[in-house]
């Protein structure tokens, strides 16, 4: 599930970096950020935080994976 979440969220970055100019890249990032903030569907972009903090000691390997992805 975390991989699917990352793929969806990182597509915005990939699309921005495909823009022809630095200005267009910045504009795409900003418009994407605005769209994400005003969206009424989907997640609140906190799956990674929840995954890292909701794990107990018995899930140290999961927590390490989330931290590695974040870094």
Question: What does this 3D model show about the protein?
Answer:
72% of the residues lie in helices and 0% in strands. It has 71 residues and is an all-alpha fold. The chain is elongated, with a radius of gyration of 15 Å.
> Sheet bearing the most strands, described?
none
Report helical residue fraction.
over 70%
Structural class, please?
mainly alpha
Shape: elongated
Number of helices: 4
Average pLDDT reading: 77
Low-confidence stretches: none
- Alpha-carbon distance between the two ends: 18 Å
**What is the beta-strand fraction?**
under 5%
Produce the secondary structure layout.
Layout lengths: L1 H16 L4 H17 L8 H7 L6 H11 L1
Descriptive key words:
71 residues; 4 helices
Brief characterization of the structure:
With about 70 residues, the protein is an all-alpha fold. About 70% of the residues lie in helices and about 0% in strands.
